[in-house]
Amino acid sequence: MTTGTETAANYPLRFNVERPASQSRLTNFPLGIGTFIRYILLIPHIVVLFFVGLIAALLYFIATFAILFTGVYPRGMYNFVSGNLRWGANVGAYINSLIDKYPPFSTEAQDYPVTIDFDYPERSSKLLNFPILAIYVKVLLLIPHIIALVFLGIAVFLVVFIAKFAILFTGSFPEGMHRFVVGVTRWQLRTQAYQLGLTDKYPPFSMD
What's the CA gap between 60 and 22, in Å, rounded? Predict the structure, then answer.
């Protein structure tokens, strides 16, 4: 079982978003107008992702039994669960105005300005992925991350709110603000990957 904090550089999940040189003023219009437009455009994604997320949760539950007996996360299940995170990350980046390109309907890696890569583990911890019990154990282990991410989430909301005014006047998401939102998203995705058994390495307290 790995519970020590891993450095960000060697963590088995990598996430990045290419910052566009210029962005749409309409779909990034401040005061919630641009966000409302984006949510309307994303309705098909939201509906499909709801069911994909349910399937991913069920597959992880089944995978815990496979891990218990074999010590291995079945590759097909791993790919689907990690693909669900990838799809959600693409949609989240679009919601937060990090990109303007409409996200693909896919759990697979695409030619898209959002990249998220996973290192498939050859072995998985039977203890950290013990059926049902592991869910509660991991929530307890992740409490410090959850607390930090609540406050960082508030900061992200404020940063995106301000960035939309910058886009309105300059046509660009300020680089430092963009990097901050990407970093918080990276941190969040690492905790989700740990929760879903995609890695047994405890996530670092880092946005890098």
Answer: 39
